[in-house]
TrEMBL record:
Membrane topology, record value: Multi-pass membrane protein
Domain named VTT: residues: 30-159
Protein name: DedA family protein
Organism of provenance: Keguizhuia sedimenti
Keywords: Cell membrane, Membrane, Transmembrane, Transmembrane helix
Transmembrane segments: 12-30, 50-71, 137-161, 176-193
């Protein structure tokens, strides 16, 4: 699995990193905690430029945040909660999670966009209350870029540093990678079968 993911990133290059990070924010197939360290790992081997890795990863992350931002701006909280109640099992988002993200935004203001990009649990959803509260696009983009770049930089640096211990990393990371992907699939399947529509 380790070789499969690193092979995909090596072959697809910056475009692959961009697409994976964009998808990770819309519908997470593979978390950024796996994508960016492996991209940094590949950059350390000289196959990619580390600046290009950071730019493509950050650009993908920010692009992936925009659909949630505009969903909040155009639909509003009530309509989104109804949508989540109706289709939450497929969207992997619940009405309660949307409500929690709005509470975080209301408590911390615009800074929630920056710090929210550093927290796996709300990194994607923090874009929704920003849209609901009609936060101007340029400040939203600036804070999203800053937060995403910091998060992606840390993950990329970790992979870059670990390249020196390639054989050790491969030995231990391969089963971990399989386990994480297995948990993601199992969690999604569990959500499909246990999701309950909230009654108004």
């Amino acid at each position: 699995m380790f070789e499969a993911i690193t092979g995909f990133v090596s072959q697809s290059g910056y475009l692959g990193i961009f697409l994976l990070m964009a998808l990770e924010n819309i519908f997470p197939p593979i978390p950024s905690e796996m994508i960016m360290p492996l991209a940094g790992f590949i950059a350390a081997r000289g196959e990619l430029n580390v600046v290009g890795v950071l730019v493509s990863g950050t650009a993908g992350s920010v692009l992936g945040a925009l659909p949630w931002y505009y969903a909040g701006k155009w639909y509003g909280l009530d309509r989104l909660k109804k949508l989540a109640d109706r289709h939450g099992r497929w969207l992997t988002v619940s009405a309660d999670e949307l409500e929690h993200a709005l509470q975080v935004f209301n408590k911390h203001g615009k800074s929630a966009v920056f710090f929210g990009r550093l927290i796996p649990a709300i990194r994607t959803l923090i874009s929704v209350p920003a849209g609901i509260c009609k936060m101007p696009l340029l400040p939203f983009l600036a804070l999203s870029i800053a937060g995403s770049l910091l998060w992606i930089g840390l993950l990329t640096a970790a992979g870059f540093i670990l390249e020196a211990n390639y054989k050790v990393v491969q030995k231990y990371l391969d089963p971990v990678t399989k386990g994480i992907i297995g948990l993601i699939i199992a969690g999604y399947v569990y959500r499909l079968f246990t999701h309950r529509t909230q009654k108004s």
